[in-house]
Amino acid sequence: MEIWDAYDSDFEIIEGVTLIRGEEASIPKGMYHLVCGVLVRHTDGSYLIMQRDPRKPYPNMWEATAGGSALKGETPLEAAYRELKEETGIEAKELKEIYRLVKDSTHSCYVEYLCVTDCEKISVVLQEGETVAYRWISEDELLNMSPEELLNQREQEYLRSQSIIS
Questions:
Q1: Each residue's pLDDT tens digit, 6-23
Q2: Whole-structure pTM over 0.90, yes or no?
Q3: Where are the beta strands (DSSP E) in the chain?
Q4: What is the CATH number of the domain that holds 114?
């Protein structure tokens, strides 16, 4: 059983409240669980995408982040480091927070990070039951993935916003 802290929309822990994985539908309005994701960019400019296990919801779709729910007592950064290591085998030296988002429909507070790595590209280790394949792709390829291929478009929106700023 996975136990989570409850958060408010300002990413503050609600003391005395515990949430349980699998019971998201019963999370009261105004409460959220914390989800952390890590977008992985290689120093050569390519991005890591991973294919979801066919036994999971949204089977065989690609994701541009490693991540998941923070466990009770974990900070967002601790959860991001743990999830990155579990899902890819990559041990990041540094993670940079890139955005936060509250999603009422899933009772989730998202904290997303960027990991820039020079790891050996063939050293990615997939997590049993989570992912079945990975690829390193260019930013253009990532930006052009369709909603039928890429589970979540948040990272595409982030990359587009960075292109406008640069």
A1: 999 999 999 999 998 887
A2: yes
A3: 3-7, 13-20, 33-42, 47-52, 62-63, 65-69, 96-103, 108-117, 131-137
A4: 3.90.79.10
